[in-house]
Design goal:
This protein has 5 helices and 4 strands, in the order H-H-E-H-E-E-H-H-E. With about 130 residues, the protein is an alpha+beta fold.
Amino acid sequence: MSGEDDLAETLSRARFGDVGHGCDEREKEPPVWAQLMKVQSKPDRDSELQAMFEQVRAVEQPDSGLVRTTVMRSQHDPEVVYVLVVFESEEKARAREQDPRRQEGLKALQASMAQVMDGPPEFTDLAVLMDT
């Protein structure tokens, strides 16, 4: 194998966290888990949609396991919004769903969600293979 092949193999393996040199700590981390939500918003509700996401962020608990949230709009259909949430693990995400502190905050948001969303969101559960 040439030096370029060795480097390519090392980089490929490093992305998945299985290179043995100095990665022992990384291998012990719990697997990262994500969920993609597809939301159909009602037309001309941009400011309400943004306010709704700010309210959802406000009820988030610091120990929820949430790593990041990314909100994106379809370039082909401006009423379609995708929300990618990344968690430390699926277990933490499922515990977050049941957290009574968060549930109480979301109940207060239901009316504004009904004003902004055109139907329930669609959920896709994802196992993260690589996060660079």
